[in-house]
Write a structure and sequence with these properties.
Elements: E1 4-7, E2 12-15, H1 23-40, H2 45-61, H3 63-74, H4 78-101, E3 108-110, E4 113-115, E5 118-120, E6 123-129, E7 133-136, H5 150-158, E8 162-165, H6 171-188, E9 195-198, H7 201-209, E10 215-219, H8 222-233, E11 241-244, E12 251-253, H9 255-274, E13 286-290, H10 293-308, E14 312-313, H11 317-333, E15 337-340, E16 350-351, E17 354-359, E18 375-381, H12 384-391, E19 397-403, H13 413-420, E20 423-428, E21 466-472, E22 492-494, E23 497-499, H14 502-505
Parallel strand pairs: 3-22, 7-8, 7-10, 8-9, 10-11, 12-13, 12-19, 13-18, 17-18, 19-20
Antiparallel strand pairs: 1-2, 3-6, 4-5, 6-21, 14-16, 15-17, 22-23
Length: 506
């Protein structure tokens, strides 16, 4: 039986023509990836950088086709998809630049010689690739967090083949993106198993269990993440699981901020909550607003914007049903008051925004469940001690946001530090949606936001798919070029001192 694909704008399902991948096919794909790994780890960095750029070019060549089919499978607007595809090709090229630059290898050389504890051997260390990586595509980012996305780019940059598990919501988009990547690999002369793809939930489970898979990159629900973690625990040899799982992303507005720019904050908050129909992992799902007239004005503005907003399609039927179920549960079990009830679109999975309100003293874990969609819980507080107590009921998140005036900063230093302890990124006087791809970015956070200390966005995401390895008293013929005595053109730490390549010091 072939897989179906559904247009969330209409609810119409069609045959994708794609067969679920059998267990035997998964094993063959994993073997091809393992064989490719034995080849890829011997390739020079310059070749790998060219591969990444070639994959970006191949995606660009199919841009109109990719945007069209992704729109039909996700309901996301063309402008959003165009921007996301640009982000995807850009990060492939940025990883290519990082591979050329080479500092990510953490190359270090300690020459043999005397030490305070006696003669020391020659030790040379750098990061080396892990092996084939399973990449699980997400529903809400059909490009940037799916088959050609950040996990794929960082794993390939590290020197690993990837096997993508296509998301069931956009199998057609996944297939075309895979074809583009495969074309990029072929043009670069890479082994066929450098990129692979499987379809269907059983295939995803079999892929994670396959002993040839060395790591997993996952963006999705906490429930599915736990299932895959259980599969990994059942392996004879457990492997790293890098999961982005759930996030509520608290936003706190101080009294000074609400008095100075309450109207602007209301507009910015609403835009952040409803962007991409609220289906962003960094959506601020819970916002703390001071009690009193100035806070009331912010709430009233958000309510007015929500009532005037049209329905936007949610990604699939499961998310649509879950959104309404969670919203009802938040009202029934969380002591929240519904200020704006969502309105369903006449067809498909469309839903307009929902706004709930709750007193800070009534916030419980039941009131802070992540609702994937255009919903925000406004928490009214009288002092920051109430905010701190309420935050104890909020799961740790990818982000925490603080809207504050300069005059308040001195008194709020401790509160800001406490807020930072609960997240992986602190946003000040801005909004957490719209994650920049850069060297300094960190897209991660304490459990249950992720189960890792690493980022899944930005150049340091490559660190997830590398392991440290040291050579002791090894002859030059056994050393990678980056650890030989001749300048390889990358930064290195030699006998404790950072040494820049001659191209930078000349």
């Amino acid at each position: 039986m072939t897989l179906t694909t559904t247009d969330p704008r209409t609810g119409d399902a069609t045959d994708s023509g794609i067969e679920p991948t059998t267990a035997e096919e998964v094993a063959a794909i994993a073997q091809a990836a393992h064989d490719a790994f034995l080849d890829l780890r011997t390739r020079p960095r310059a070749w790998r950088a060219d591969l990444l750029r070639g994959c970006a070019d191949a995606l660009e060549a199919r841009r109109p086709e990719l945007v069209a089919i992704a729109g039909a499978e996700t309901g996301l607007a063309p402008a959003r998809l165009e921007g996301e595809l640009t982000r995807t090709t850009t990060q492939l090229r940025m990883f290519a630049d990082a591979v050329d630059e080479g500092s990510y290898l953490e190359a270090a050389i300690d020459h043999a010689g005397p030490t305070p504890m006696g003669p020391g051997p020659d030790i040379r260390r750098m990061l080396v690739p892990l092996g084939p990586v399973a990449v699980f595509g997400s529903s809400n980012f059909p490009f940037a967090f799916s088959v050609p996305g950040g996990d794929t780019a960082s794993a390939l940059a590290a020197g690993n083949p990837i096997v993508a598990k296509a998301h069931s919501s956009h199998p057609g988009t996944s297939r075309i993106a895979f074809e583009a990547l495969a074309a990029g690999v072929e043009a670069a002369g890479g082994p066929a198993g450098t990129v692979g793809i499987v379809y269907g939930q059983p295939a995803g489970t079999a892929l994670v269990a396959d002993p040839r898979i060395a790591a997993v990159g996952f963006t999705g629900s906490l429930t599915t993440g736990r299932i895959l973690l259980d599969v990994i625990e059942g392996r004879e040899r457990p492997i790293p699981f890098y999961g982005e799982l759930a996030s509520v992303n608290p936003l706190v507005v101080t009294p000074g901020a609400v008095a100075t720019r309450g109207a602007a904050i209301a507009e910015g908050l609403f835009a952040s909550v409803t962007g991409s129909a609220g289906q962003l992992c960094t959506k601020p799902g819970i916002a703390f607003v001071p009690a009193g007239a100035e806070g009331d004005a912010v709430v009233d503005a958000v309510v007015s914007l929500a009532r005037d907003a049209a329905a936007q399609p949610l990604l699939n039927g499961r998310i649509h049903a879950s959104f309404d179920e969670i919203r009802t549960r938040l009202v029934d079990d969380g002591a929240a008051r519904e200020l704006v009830a969502p309105v369903a679109a006449p067809e498909g999975y469309g839903m307009s925004p929902a706004v709930l309100e709750i007193d800070a003293t009534a916030v419980t874990p039941a009131a802070t469940e992540e609702a994937f969609g255009p919903l925000v819980v406004l928490v009214r507080y009288r002092d920051l001690a109430e905010v701190t107590a309420a935050l104890d009921a909020v799961p740790d998140s990818l982000t925490a946001t603080l809207h504050v005036e300069d005059a308040e900063l001195g008194a709020l230093a401790g509160f800001a530090a406490d807020l930072a302890d609960r997240a992986g990124r602190l946003v000040v006087n801005g909004y957490p949606t719209g994650v920049r791809v850069s060297w300094a970015q960190h897209h991660g956070g304490p459990w249950p936001a992720t189960n890792t200390l690493h980022t899944s966005v930005g150049m340091t995401a490559i660190r997830r798919f590398l392991r440290p390895f040291a050579w002791q008293d090894a002859p030059a013929a056994l050393l990678p070029v980056e650890l030989q005595d001749a300048d390889p053109g990358i930064p290195r730490r030699i006998d404790g001192s950072l040494v820049l390549p001659s191209t930078l010091t000349a």
